[in-house]
Write a structure and sequence with these properties.
single chain; 459 residues; 2 domains; four-stranded antiparallel β-sheet; 14 helices
Length: 459
């Protein structure tokens, strides 16, 4: 074994091995063959992980990990040993008075020596406290040789077990292994918090007005897009209207629409009915629409088609349900009618099953789906969802890890938080928080990664 510095050990995490420095909370990937390359040796020496390269502890800079926050009067941190499909578990770590002061002084710039002098504690006592924060089960701090660079990715990550795959009920697949969610959708118990706790959509995350959409909510921005393309006339049908928020926004963009909603969930349909008086709700499936032939001028489905059946292939999945839906769209559209389908997926790569949800959704292979639409005689235009909406991907939102920390704290104290793309202008908290992080809409927030979403439409 390569000679390691004191406090350095080899940890096995998620089937891989890492050199872990308990004194600094830093880690490096360890080669499977135990052969230390010159580049790895240089990095280990720089991190004080090789014997004879110990670092001066008083000169190290305590840098806060992004997955740690001071909430209320307690330090909360993500537990790297517990990574669920819904995110990491978070733990409270109460601190004594001087320990809280030490944490407050750790600002990614002061050294441990600076902090010891500022709070009037011996350096050895301070280092003993910091060792609790750099320990593997906590990882609230890293001790570095210098200041981190702006946006340092190393402070956003933990050495942690990989995210667990959500369990699957066998009834969610048919005898051939294809996804089968009709019964699951029909049995959704209630609309309240379904899109916060079970399946968060881009539309739900952006349901509140957001600067990335010019200060508008997602539904209204979508409605304005449809209006610009001349699609909001005659009979408009939304398939899979969810909470009804998108329908509400579209109807706001074009009042007095002849608007029909088709949904497979009685609970969601009831919530839509209450939210959208003056529109028609129909219980039905996307692949057997309860609509007459040639009766619709514009049909759209926002973040629905990944829930339709997909069949396993030798290399991935075939989006058979989405293809069947296109055949239904062709049947119900009037001559000259239009359609819009948005969902997460890819243009060229194989479709894959999302493993973090409690039900099987399969990404859409949009190039194949567009080819299928063309074979049915439908116009087929592909574009990224962000481009179609004119979404400003540089606009801010709350980072996913910060959202998970707030959610853990609120649930522990009898509250909760909606899965929204919160931004500095609308996140109001009744308690102090130190350590929130903001990223762009192109990064990971409370909702899905919007850059993975595409649109197939009639143009």
């Amino acid at each position: 074994m390569f000679p390691l510095a004191n406090g350095v050990e080899i940890l096995r995490v998620g089937g891989r091995r890492f050199a872990w420095n308990a004194h600094t909370g830093r880690h490096l990937p360890w080669p499977s063959d135990d052969v230390v390359s010159p580049a790895l040796l240089h990095r280990m020496a720089d991190e004080g992980m090789a014997r004879g390269t110990e670092l001066d502890p008083a000169s190290l800079v305590p840098c806060r990990q992004w997955l740690a926050m001071w909430i209320g009067d307690v330090l909360w941190h993500a537990d790297p040993r517990s990574t669920t499909p819904g995110g990491r578990a978070w733990r409270a770590l109460p601190l004594a008075g001087w320990e809280a002061a030490a944490w407050a002084h750790a600002n990614d710039a002061r050294t441990t020596g600076d902090i010891a002098r500022a709070i009037g504690r011996p350096i050895d006592e301070l280092l003993s406290f910091f060792s609790r924060l750099t320990a593997f089960p906590v990882q609230a701090l890293q001790l570095r040789r210098g200041h981190p660079r702006r946006g340092d990715e190393g402070l956003r990550r933990q050495l942690a077990e990989p995210v667990a795959t959500a369990s699957r009920d066998p009834s969610m697949y048919d005898g051939g292994g294809a996804t089968a969610l009709a019964d699951w959708h029909h049995a959704i118990p209630q609309a309240h918090r379904h899109f916060d706790d079970v399946e968060t959509t881009v539309a739900h995350a952006l349901e509140r007005p957001h600067p990335g959409l010019g200060g508008r909510p997602y539904g209204e921005a979508l409605g304005r897009l449809f209006a610009r393309r001349g699609w909001l006339s005659g009979r408009v049908v939304e398939v899979g209207a969810g909470s009804g928020a998108v329908a509400e926004g579209v109807c706001r963009a074009a009042p007095r629409l002849d608007y029909t909603r088709v949904d497979l969930s009685p609970a969601l349909l009831a919530a839509q009915d209450a939210r959208l008086p003056g529109t028609l709700g129909l219980l039905g499936s996307a692949t057997t629409l309860p609509l007459p032939d040639a009766s619709v001028d514009f049909l759209f489905a926002n973040e629905v088609i990944a829930d339709l059946a997909s069949s396993p292939t030798a290399t991935g999945w075939d989006n058979t349900g989405a293809q069947d839906f296109l055949a239904e769209i062709r049947r119900v559209l009037r001559p000259g009618g239009h359609y819009w389908l948005s969902e997460f997926g890819t243009i060229d790569d194989e479709a894959e099953e999302a493993t973090a949800l409690g039900h099987p959704e399969v990404s859409i292979q949009f190039a194949d789906l567009a080819a299928h639409a063309a074979s049915l005689g439908l116009a087929a235009r592909l574009e990224p969802l962000a481009d179609a909406l004119g979404l400003d991907l540089a606009a801010p939102q709350l980072w996913r890890g910060s959202y998970e920390g707030l959610r853990a704290y609120l649930r522990a104290t009898g509250g909760d938080i909606e899965a929204r793309a919160w931004h500095p202008g609308n996140l109001e908290l009744p308690f102090p928080v130190d350590g929130l992080h903001w990223v762009t809409l192109a990064d990971r927030g409370p909702g899905p990664l919007v850059t993975r979403f595409y649109v197939l439409s009639s143009g």
